[in-house]
Amino acid sequence: MWQRTTRRRAAAAIPGAALAGGVLGAACAAPGAGGATGGEAPAGAAGPPVQLTYLHQWGPTQGHGPITDTLLARFREQHPAIRIEGVFSSTYYQKLAAMLAGGEVPDVVTYNLAQVPLLVKKGVVVPAETLSRGATRLNLADLLPAAREMATFDGKLAVVPYVLNSSGLALNAALYQRQGLDAGSPPATWDDLLEQARRLTGKDGDKDVWGTVFPRGTADPVSPLLAAIWQNGGDLVDAQRRVVLWTQPPAVEALQFQVDLVHRYRVAPYPDPANGEAGGVALWHIPPGNISALQLRIKDAFPWTTAELPRRRAQATTVGGHSLAVLRTGRAEELAWRFVHWYVTPEVNAEYLVATTTLPPWRASEQHARWQAYARDEPRIRPFVRMLGYARPTPKLSRWEDVIGILARARDAAGAAERTPREALEDAAREAQPLIAEG
Fold first, then answer.
1. Which terminus of the chain, N or C, has less C-beta within 10 A?
2. Using only C-alpha atoms, what is the Rg of the chain?
3. What pLDDT is recorded for position 218?
4. CATH match of 168-319+393-437 with 3.40.190.10
5. How far apart are CA 326 and CA 71, in angstroms?
6. What's this model's pTM, rounded to 2 decimal places?
């Protein structure tokens, strides 16, 4: 089911829009350079407002929903010749796929960066190279490397990142203090994590307290496992040969370490995770978007903080997020681009990021006064920002979401001791290899 996020009537469907497409282009200059409001198109100024549709997945009661509605309304006020309406779908990706198949193409869409390869493969995105020019040019040098890599295909920018996500640690400072530990000195290495988890595991009255958790998903269902594989010097996929690499020793060792937290060291429960919010675990994994939610739920029950993920051979974390794409409608694509460009100007983008406790893909957004003030007032966001300096993008595969599901099942089979980590990862490789071969 889908519904409009404003009370205004959205544009009529666009029948017969062309779906053929070429490769996507690059752009240059800083976000917002040359005038953030973008001006009006001559045709729009002479006649009625041009009707555009932004299809998105941010419901009015979700963290991203209210700020999305606010910014859409502000854009309409600043650009009276461009009447862009937000359309929310609770089954977003299924809805968009059905619309594209039927030729009913929205003007602008949001898209998970990890899933952009599938959108590119459909050939429905307007090349950024033909849109990013003049007053609405983007400065690719301002885009963080991991975000730029995820948004780039055939050497050219495909979509425009506007929000990033990653994986980090939350720490219960009260449990640390009881054991004579300092939550301000979080684990820097895997050995540190194990040592601290051992000291923190025990009893709080008649309640079990766990040092840590069996790592499941944060930014995506397997983000802590992917990060651990990279931290241990391994990799997931050979992009050139399109073959699995997660059966190699570094990846097997990474999953083995996570399984050992449960079965060998007994510092993490399985299958049910310990509840960090309820005070039953000292160290657990969160994305930055959880910071505001945890603050509301924990309140004054206990002090807590955040930290970067520990390293082994290297520092590494995953990166995810969302992007905006102008789709091929055969009409008003330049005006749709003005909206996309406006959305990632530093002032607008920083406001969105603060409202959603997510991370800046653009350096200019991070340097904006609004974001800087937020980071000063909420120091728990800072470890996540620092980790962007060594964040690694997931493989560019059109079936990556399916591959994630396969890896999650393998991890859980190892966590339940149904398969050894090696067996579980080898099983996953056999199942995923045909999907990876599709590119």
1. N
2. 23
3. 81
4. yes
5. 17
6. 0.87
